[in-house]
Amino acid sequence: xxxxxxxxxxxxxxxxxxxxxxxxxxxxxxxxxxxxxxxxxxxxxxxxxxxxxxxxxxxxxxxxxxxxxxxxxxxxxxxxxxxxxxxxxxxxxxxxxxxxxxxxxxxxxxxxxxxxxxxxxxxxxxxxxxxxxxxxxxxxxxxxxxxxxxxxxxxxxxxxxxxxxxxxxxxxxxxxxxxxxxxxxxxxxxxxxxxxxxxxxxxxxxxxxxxxxxxxxxxxxxxxxxxxxxxxxxxxxxxxxxxxxxxxxxxxxxxxxxxxxxxxxxxxxxxxxxxxxxxxxxxxxxxxxxxx
Length: 292
Hints:
By secondary structure, the protein is of the alpha+beta class. It has helices at about 30-35, 45-50, 70-80, 100-105, 115-130, 185-190, and strands spanning about 1-10, 20, 55-65, 85-90, 135, 160-165, 205-215, 235-240, 255-260, 270-275, 280-290. The chain has 3 domains: about 1-10 and about 150-215, no CATH class; about 20-135, no CATH class; about 235-290, no CATH class. It has a 4-stranded mixed beta sheet with strand order 2-5-4-3. The protein has a 3-stranded antiparallel beta sheet with strand order 6-1-7, with no helix packed on it. Strands 8-11 form a two-stranded antiparallel sheet. The longest helix is centred in the middle third of the chain and has 17 residues, at about 115-130.
């Protein structure tokens, strides 16, 4: 019997959270209450110049944690000038194209370190001065990142490797380590997984080894039923094999079973078991005379 051995690694994905750290003068709940009293209709002058609570807010990425205090002030003033309500300060990595964008945006100070906190405080003060709403994503990047996150608690991905074994037999081998990275998944493409001198990830955890039997399922099954009341004698079978466009062949292993009574499975007896050659055309297999 052939079996598959699966080696499984598992991981956890965390979700970022956001909090408003500076609010405009009128609380949002108060604005909604006043708006509802009007029957949900804004006056024309309010529509042309809506209060700050009704203006758009932006998701404001600080790529690679890199910032400039003067640039922060300039962008906030532009938000105010263009009629926005403010933005959510989001310290984030260059999410999708590691390598290309990280060369464009240099790495800034560690998130929530002294310099990072200085920039956040500056943002809140400037936003308050301009009467804007300032939000803060309380983690770095997409997945609850930060300098305090250890490899064991960082973003992880589940990988596996597969080995086929012919049995029955005693099997004692080192299973191959799963291939880490690659594929079309954006997470799997990331090349930021730290590796050790042996080329393996600095942090990984073996989860399980699973042994699963490979069930042999016939690709095709044919049942020939000669005319009843007559007896036939067989001594050979001719099977045609056909090749696929990918260089493989449709059939390989086959069995011949004969019943002289009924079509029930238990009435059949195997008289020949063989393999087709990987070539197109008829192939003949002979055996001793058998009544059918």
